[in-house]
Amino acid sequence: MSDDLDKAVENLKTLRDEIRVQIHLAKAELKDEWEELEPRFEQMEDRLGSAAEETRQTVNVIAEELAEAYRRIKSRL
């Protein structure tokens, strides 16, 4: 019985380690996605400051894309 328990504990440790690595990789992936969005957010803010109506429409599209991407990141956390 002790051998079975030892094996079960070892299996749990292995599974736990695998999950830990996957979580770490997921965090890194989300961080990369976040960092790609930041320049676009700054671009949107810059354009909004002195935007004509046409540019405002473009900024609106960018804002919608950013909102969707932020929601996707948030839902994956």
* Average pLDDT taken over every residue: 85
Global shape: rod-shaped
Judged by helices, strands and strand pairing, the structural class is mainly alpha
Poorly predicted regions: none
Strand content is under 5%
C-alpha Rg (nearest Å): 22 Å
Note the run of SSEs as H and E: HH
In whole angstroms, how far apart are the ends?
39 Å
Q: What share of residues is helical?
A: over 70%
How many helical elements? Answer: 2
- The domain tally reads 1
Q: How would a textbook summarize the main sheet?
A: none
Detailed description of the structure:
It is a single chain. The chain has one domain (2-76). Helices cover 94% and strands 0% of the residues. It is an all-alpha fold and 77 residues long. It contains 2 helices and no strands.
Fill in the keyword field for this structure.
77 residues; mainly alpha
Kindly summarize this structure in a few lines.
The protein is mainly alpha-helical and 77 residues long. It has helices at residues 2-49, 53-76.
Chart the SSEs and their pairings.
Layout: H1 2-49, H2 53-76
Helix pairs in contact: 1-2
